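Troubleshooting log. The previous structure file for this entry was overwritten by mistake, so regenerating from the original sequence record. Sequence copied from the archived sheet and checked twice against the printout by T.R.
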Amino acid sequence: MKRITLVCLALIGVALLGGCASTKNENLKTFDTNLANKYPPLAVFWGRPSASLQQECQAFAASSVMKMCNENLVDVNLFYRSFMASQVFEKVTLGDETSDYNLAISTVHFSDEDAGDIAKGALAGATLLLVPVDMKQHTKAEVTVYWRDWPLKVYHYELPFVHTMQLFTDPMQGQKDYAEALVSHVIADMQQDDIFSHRFMVDNFHTSDYEKELVYPEQLAGFEYAEHMIYNDPFLGAAVRYVEPELRNEVLDVFVYPARFVDLVDVPEVLAKEARNVQREIEYVAKQNKWQALELEEIVPINAGGLAGVYFDGSYTVDLDLPEYTSTFLFLKEDKFIKIRANFPGKHVKEQVLASLAQFTAPKESDFMKEVRLKSSQRGMQE
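Regenerated output below.
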């Protein structure tokens, strides 16, 4: 009897010594944290399980009095914190509906209490929770990634949920470990799919393929090509920068993006509306950057080899210093706007810009934009 008592005390002693030691989360999945650019801001939400998963949960619980099934037992704040801790996103928010990228997480927990679980509970009670006892549950998770209410992809996971009963263990540790593990799987899979890329949108939503279809010259009005960018947002399209070869501080930025209008037949009206949108953007930037004495001149029509366009100049000051300039050329080619912006008086390159415009080829109207325009037309709305 003494021997048994000594063995039990020894076990308890080991448990006490190891009680404060952290256990390794064995369900983590490795993902790349060494990114050239962080991923766009992400908003995290709780979601409802799909109808099929809800039915599976209900059927499981109804099959035996020893079985239970619960939805969304893990605090959504823990998922949010795990995404933040990953440090691969520009920003992570909780429930921010203004974010372009949203992620909804739903989980169900299947609890099947058998003789082994009952014995574990008895052991935990008998040792006053000094000996760690792991209780495992099977879970299923559905993670849906959205871009502006468009569902990009639904990921499905089956991971164990482990709750350790021990005196010195954080009662929330099981939820924290589960959240960290699930988030690691989600990020790894999103990286595998390259879900935040232009290519993902082209391949899965048939947006315009700027990588293959956008054609632009190496020089524009004597300015040399410097760099280009293709946005993952199909509404933003692509941008190409040209710089003055000697001064380098004078630039021409070319933006090619789809017209967000349903009816493109009345080209002058479409151009006038978009030019006013551009002016509002400049006014917003001026306010944010505290520009002073902003003046935007009248929007005037122009023509580039039969292609209709509009043009306007602008000027402003920064800290009451010398005047700065902004000039905008805007054209509509098929369903794409070609916007050329100069940070100097555009009149100096106006004729050269008009002569060079034929060297730009914009992607054709995408299936994605056709669908957007069709739905907007059916709703009787025009952006």
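The chain has two domains: 35-196, 208-379. Archived copy saved in two places this time.
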